[in-house]
Write a structure and sequence with these properties.
Length: 308
């Protein structure tokens, strides 16, 4: 392990590269990153990178977003097959047809899109949000407009409850957050009395309603930081988030909420990135996210939504 870590650090220096890593990456990758964060933080940090190359350790839509916001940078993704079930659930042509149907029926609406989406979908949107800024953005949508929220129905439902805005919800879900077992959560709460449950808003309502705190990963970190005495936390989000929590706040204990089919939930797409692939992409300068048609429109929406 030490050898490959040394190789990566050496190649990073020689390539004049910056490594960005999402909190859902393995801890060994997060520990090598120049910046770790959620989607909103990483999108913003990508615009501050001075080095000519960004290695984005995350999934495809995240690296794509970094490229859209930094056209002049070379953006590398260790594995181009690192996709996202939410992005896949909402193809741009299907969304365009649905939007046209709503317009034909006289519906006045704005499309608010979760960042877990393709550039083509972002280009069709009025706003792009993350779990970190979604409530703020939704409050900017004129009251006379309906909100078409895509692609995560669970996050949309949560935001509708939080803001009081009715929404037309796309029928998409995250494969990690959707399969948390409420039965196992309730059993764990009995086993660890006094534990506080942290749930990501991508979780279904039956998980959220049994959670003491609901928020994205950056919000979880801020919340846990307020606890000075050792506390037990039950974590209902991608399991690698516990590495970040443990590294920042080691005084607490973190227990994963089980999925229906596994002891803890890890994203198979995030798991495609490995130290070997990080090394190889630095050594070879590939795979690279290229500029595509539609990125200009997506960039306009991203800048308005995330940077202003």
């Amino acid at each position: 392990m030490t050898d490959i870590v040394s190789e990566i650090r050496d190649l990073k220096a020689r390539s004049n590269a910056t490594i960005l890593a999402h909190y859902y990456q393995d801890g060994e990758i997060q520990s090598l990153a120049d910046v770790t964060g959620d989607s909103l933080k990483l999108a913003r940090e990508a615009t501050k990178v001075h080095n000519p190359t960004i290695v984005f350790c995350g999934v495809h839509f995240m690296a794509e977003t970094a490229k859209i916001l930094n056209p002049e940078k070379r953006v590398l993704l260790p594995d181009l097959k690192a996709g996202c079930s939410l992005a896949e659930s909402c193809p741009a042509p299907k969304l365009a047809r649905y939007q046209e149907m709503l317009r034909e029926n006289g519906r006045k609406f704005q499309t608010v899109t979760y960042i877990n989406s393709t550039a083509g979908v972002k280009a069709l949107s009025d706003w792009v949000v993350t779990s970190g800024n979604a409530e703020q953005i939704i409050r900017r949508v004129p009251q006379e407009c309906e909100i078409l929220f895509v692609p995560d129905r669970h996050l949309g439902q949560y935001l509708s409850e939080a803001t009081g805005r009715k929404m037309i919800l796309w029928d998409g879900a995250c494969i990690v957050h959707e399969i948390f077992s409420v039965g196992d959560l309730l059993a764990l709460k009995k086993t660890v009395p006094g534990a506080i449950t942290l749930a990501h808003p991508e979780c279904p309502a039956n998980i959220r309603e049994h959670s003491e705190f609901i928020g994205g990963t950056e919000a979880m970190l801020r919340y846990v930081a307020t606890f000075t005495k050792p506390t037990d936390f039950l974590v209902a989000t991608e399991a690698n988030m516990m590495w970040q929590l443990q590294s920042k706040f080691p005084r607490h204990r973190y227990l994963p909420v089980a999925g229906i089919t596994c002891a803890c939930n890890k994203c198979p797409h995030m798991a495609r990135n490995t130290l070997e692939k990080v090394r190889d992409c630095l050594a070879n300068g590939t795979p690279e996210i290229g500029w595509q048609s539609g990125f200009d429109r997506a960039r306009e929406v991203l800048q308005r939504s995330l940077l202003n």
